[in-house]
Specification:
The structure holds two protein chains of two kinds. In chain A, 71% of the residues lie in helices and 0% in strands. Chain A is mostly helical. Chain B is an alpha/beta fold. In chain B, β1, α2 (41-50) and β2 (53-59) form a beta-alpha-beta unit. The chains are: A mainly alpha, B alpha/beta.
Chain lengths: 270, 352
């Protein structure tokens, strides 16, 4: 029998910082200013649905782009030698040593109409791009900030893949494409799924990226929640109700994702 | 992210408590102010003279201050909310009445700033600093200098205008453009202002809704016009001399930030001593020099450097001040309506 004593600090941590706040959100969501039970916070859903559609769309596009970039990258990285891997990993992790807001602020300067990017384009005679304060800038911000969370899980699944499966497939006459399509990709699905979740969930709840890069021109769920606490009307009850709805949305998204992946062991790593 | 935010919140809540416990052994007060809005070396002088240590924390918006005080668990002794937030907190019983017998320096304050709409009896607050809002514009990028709030809506410049990123200031300027009061509670007027802002966004005039990001954008010639505070314009123009500032003819917003003692304070006497200290002429002058904002003290203004006190942006003449209006408190229902209308603006899309 293993002792459970070492687990106590984690249990206490979870209770204080996860369970209690979650319960508080539930209590706030179902009460009004007088502390009485009410369902009123959930009745004004048309705004929520409108904002929700926009958030889901942007988060989905960002996640898809991340996947398209990350999968080939992780795949080829897994084929390289240990030195290249180490260097590549360092470069993936390096930006994360800096503050997230600082990095996003830097993107603002890069994407501005007279920013670095357009100055560079002007040098080679390409007309300036208008990216800042559009949905494209918000998606770019999401992709840039959350891409490592897509690369890392996919990479670690492909890296640990048993080479003998690939050799067996090749022995049985499978071509390169067939090996990838029927062996490598199915085996890497758990990594893809955890990557999708780790990009999609922060993307759908972000508010700093839409503020800085979107210039307030696109309004996301995170902005709507922030507004209930720091807007003109202080309404933690409505804010909690919206948070709860978003939580529900994320749970539904996770359930749908889980239907695609059979081997779930790999999906919870990291 | 959420876990981190909660952890941060817990730490923030714990901070003032820690400060409070310390206060039982040696005298200390907890001061909660806007960021970059005081000369912090003043705290050392205050401690040297009175033996009271100052624990200093900052907030980024009135709403943040409100949720910190309303949420409870804090023990601040002096807070510095703006006009409309003073009104709201006073009404909700979150502020203590000031004992003026302990604030002799209060008599230095100019009559103009006393007994304002947000605190008619001057019960809860004493003005700290003030300023105006207006239009900052780039003289090389506009054909005609703007003179009114309406110019922000009728301009031919597409994607060149920056607007306040908060409901009160943003809808407020549109209310003024239409000739209404900042403090109207008439839903039709607020809705009309919102429609004006939505049309402006749909027509592609707005480049972005920003707060402090405006510094970088105006300094780097990213936008032709933007709405912000006079004190911050003075900082921007040092970096970009092409910028100019105008208080619009319909009337600017005269904002006043005032010192108050919240009911959660446990050091009332020491808090009064601090407020009195902050009204002393030499301290006021140092503070204005550091922050660039305008002081409400008549006696300090007389002693001020001519160059500063004659600056029409920092200390505009009576013609502008008489037209300017200060934000008052709004009823809960109107505030909720503001949020509702603000979401309408946020969800509007540019029509190409």
């Amino acid at each position: 029998m293993k002792t459970k004593t070492p687990a106590i600090p984690y249990v206490v941590w979870m209770a204080v910082f996860v369970v209690v706040p979650l319960l508080l959100i539930v209590v706030y969501a179902f009460t009004n200013y007088d502390g009485k039970f009410t369902l009123e916070n959930f009745t004004n859903l048309d705004v929520f649905l409108q904002v929700c559609g926009n958030s889901l769309y942007l988060a989905a596009v960002a996640t898809a782009i991340c996947l398209l970039i990350a999968y080939p990258f992780a795949y080829f990285l897994a084929q390289t030698g240990p030195t290249t891997r180490k260097v590549a990993m360092l470069f993936i992790m390096l930006p994360m040593w800096m503050n997230f807001l600082l990095r996003t602020y830097a993107w603002m300067s890069i994407l501005e109409n007279h920013g670095f990017l357009n100055q560079l384009l002007a040098l080679v005679g390409i007309p300036p791009l208008h990216i800042i304060n559009t949905d494209a800038a918000v998606i770019l911000g999401m992709v840039y900030n959350f891409l490592p969370f897509m690369i890392l899980p996919i990479f670690s699944v492909i890296e640990k893949l048993d080479r003998r499966y690939i050799e067996a497939a090749q022995d049985l006459g499978a071509g390169k494409l067939q090996v990838f399509r029927r062996v490598i990709f199915p085996l890497s699905v758990p990594g893809v799924i955890s990557g999708i979740m780790m990009v999609f969930i922060p993307s759908i709840s972000t508010f700093a990226i839409s503020k800085l890069l979107g210039g307030g021109m696109s309004f996301l769920l995170g902005d709507l929640i922030e507004m209930q606490f720091l807007g003109s009307a202080y309404n933690p009850h409505l804010g909690s109700a919206i948070s709860l709805m978003m939580l529900l949305l994320v749970i539904i998204a996770m359930l749908i994702m889980n239907r695609f992946g059979d081997g779930e062991e790999g999906a919870v790593m990291m | 992210m959420k876990k981190f935010a909660i952890l941060l919140l817990a730490l923030l809540l714990a901070l003032p408590l820690a400060g409070c416990q310390k206060g039982q052994t040696e005298r200390s007060i907890n001061v909660y102010n806007w960021g970059e809005y005081i000369d912090e070396s003043i705290f050392d002088d205050f401690e040297a003279e009175t033996g009271i240590h100052v624990n200093y924390n900052t907030f980024a918006s009135n709403e943040m201050l409100y949720s910190a005080i309303k949420g409870g668990g804090n023990s601040y002794d002096v807070i510095i909310p703006s006009d409309y937030m003073v009104a709201r907190m006073g009404e909700e019983g979150l502020l203590m009445e000031l004992d003026y017998s302990k604030i002799p320096n209060a008599q230095n304050i100019d009559e103009r700033y006393l007994h304002p709409a947000y605190d008619t009896e001057q019960k809860y607050s004493l003005p700290y600093m003030w300023g105006t809002t207006g239009i900052i514009y780039n003289t090389t990028m506009v054909d005609k200098a703007p003179t009114s709030w309406m110019d922000l809506f009728t301009t031919d410049l597409k994607g060149q205008v920056l607007i306040f990123d908060n409901p009160r200031d943003c809808i407020g300027l549109a209310l003024k453009a239409l000739g209404y009061s900042f403090n109207t509670t008439d839903k039709d007027e607020i809705a009309a202002a919102t429609d004006l802002l939505i049309k402006q966004k749909e027509d592609g005039i707005v480049q972005a809704y920003v707060m402090d990001q405006i510094f970088d954008k105006m300094i780097n010639n990213e936008a032709a016009m933007g709405t912000y505070y006079a004190g911050d314009y003075l900082t921007m123009v040092e970096e970009n001399p092409d910028l100019a500032f105008v208080q619009p003819e319909e009337g600017s917003n005269l904002f006043v930030d005032a010192m108050c003692i919240p009911t959660c304070s446990k050091n009332y006497e020491d808090a009064l001593a601090f407020i009195n200290f902050m009204c002393r002429d030499d301290i006021v002058l140092r503070n204005c020099e550091e922050t660039g904002y305008s002081c409400p003290s008549a006696t300090a203004l007389e002693e001020m450097d001519e160059e500063m006190s004659a600056d029409p942006v920092a200390y505009p003449g009576a013609d502008i001040l008489d037209k300017a209006e200060t934000f008052g408190g709004l009823p809960e229902e109107t505030l909720t309506f503001y949020d509702h209308e603000w979401i309408r603006i946020c969800l509007a899309k540019v029509k190409y």
